[in-house]
């Protein structure tokens, strides 16, 4: 199984690019209410057919990492709001969406309906199947799988509830740009069959543009982001049997972990400033009594001994309490036009010979079963 796990797309350079997008503020609205939430949707982790490759022999036998539903709610000054949910699943399901809307109507009335709730999948091929409503999609899972369905509905509903309860004033920033070396055309020979006049209209043979939305809470600062970028969720090959969010699910987890660690390190380096104006400006959340105590600590007593500043332990306690109130960063890597895009940027190779697969047919000796793509982690095995 390590072959498939190591085949996940390398994300370090992508993070640097995404971090740049997060820092650039090109479009701002400060009158929105924004709310973010995240909840587990992993579902059955064993003895369930996996959704994506349509292979009856690909049955789950464990967990690579858990799956989540990540929700973003935005409300404008007129009260209109929209809910976007990104799920670590191959795709959204009409029957799942209908059940989620039914529960939301029971809880919130007409606040959230089919008109303002959108649910999107990241297209991982390593999640449990059996949760869709059409026969063609549940043939390989031998029918409807109630556990898969319930995990999705429960998780999506709870992520929306969390986002609703976290609604706070904030701003939204938008940016876009090219992200290279994160996807290749999975059928370059087919692309070359397009007329040269049509191909000349495009800079690349796949869509390289990433679009990112950044959400900034008026009090806490950046609290989340989601982006759209085209690449298939097939870094884990069809021989994989571990539940996984694949490259986009991994990117979301790593982004959230990076932001949490970055913020923690930044907070530890902060020192209380000695200018009164700065203290007032940076400590608006401290109660008036605590603020006066901080201010008084900078004046010497009549006996010439420095007044005792608020103890470091008390400051740590207050900091921990404020940190507990701060919402966790929610990062979603959403899917877009990924039909012709593979994350296996090193190309496709034959398992038996190690040679590149046939360029025109993606086969090895006439058989496609032996042809597998390789991502940037493959050479590190």
UniProtKB/TrEMBL annotation:
One of its GO terms (biological process) is ceramide catabolic process. Keywords: Hydrolase, Lipid metabolism, Metal-binding, Sphingolipid metabolism, Zinc. GO terms for cellular component: extracellular region; membrane. Its cofactor is Zn(2+). Zn(2+) binds at residues 123, 232. InterPro entries: Ceramidase_alk, NEUT/ALK_ceramidase_N. Residues 32-378 form the Neutral/alkaline non-lysosomal ceramidase N-terminal domain. The active site is at residue 342. The keyword Kinase does not apply. Its EC number is 3.5.1.23. GO terms for molecular function: metal ion binding; N-acylsphingosine amidohydrolase activity. It catalyses: an N-acylsphing-4-enine + H2O = sphing-4-enine + a fatty acid. It comes from the Eukaryota. The keyword Metal-binding applies. Belongs to the neutral ceramidase family. This is Neutral ceramidase.
């Amino acid at each position: 199984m390590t072959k498939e796990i190591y085949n996940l797309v390398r994300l370090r350079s992508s993070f640097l690019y995404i971090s740049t997008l997060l820092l650039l503020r090109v479009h701002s609205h400060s009158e929105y209410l924004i709310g973010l939430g995240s909840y587990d949707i992993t579902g059955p982790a064993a003895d369930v057919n996996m959704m994506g490759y349509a292979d009856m022999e690909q049955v789950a036998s464990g967990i690579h990492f858990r799956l989540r539903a990540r929700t973003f709610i935005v409300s404008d000054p007129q009260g209109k709001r929209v809910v976007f949910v990104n799920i670590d699943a191959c795709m959204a399901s009409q029957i799942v969406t209908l059940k989620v809307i039914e529960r939301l109507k029971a809880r919130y009335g007409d606040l959230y309906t089919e008109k303002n709730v959108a649910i999107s999948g990241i297209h991982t091929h390593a999640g449990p199947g059996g949760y869709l409503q059409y026969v063609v999609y549940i043939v390989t899972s031998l029918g409807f799988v109630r556990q898969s369905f319930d995990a999705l509905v429960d998780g999506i509903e709870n992520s929306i509830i969390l986002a609703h309860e976290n609604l706070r004033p904030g701003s939204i920033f938008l940016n876009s740009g090219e992200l290279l070396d994160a996807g290749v055309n999975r059928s370059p020979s087919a692309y070359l069959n397009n007329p040269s006049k049509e191909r000349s209209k495009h800079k690349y043979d796949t869509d390289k543009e990433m679009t990112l939305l950044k959400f900034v809470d008026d009090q806490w600062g950046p609290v989340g982001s989601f982006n759209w970028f085209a690449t298939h969720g097939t870094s884990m090959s069809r021989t994989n049997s571990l539940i996984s969010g694949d490259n986009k699910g991994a990117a979301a987890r790593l982004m959230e972990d990076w932001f949490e660690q970055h913020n923690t390190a930044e907070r530890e380096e902060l020192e209380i400033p000695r200018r009164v104006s700065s203290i007032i400006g940076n400590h608006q959340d401290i109660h008036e009594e605590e603020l006066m105590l901080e201010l008084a600590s900078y004046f010497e007593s009549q006996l010439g001994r420095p007044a005792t500043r608020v103890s470091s332990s008390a400051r740590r306690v207050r900091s921990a309490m404020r940190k507990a109130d701060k919402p966790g960063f929610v990062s979603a890597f959403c899917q877009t036009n990924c039909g012709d895009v593979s994350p296996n940027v090193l190309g496709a190779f034959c398992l038996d010979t190690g040679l590149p697969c046939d360029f025109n047919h993606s086969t090895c000796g006439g058989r496609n079963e032996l042809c597998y793509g390789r991502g940037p982690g493959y050479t590190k095995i």
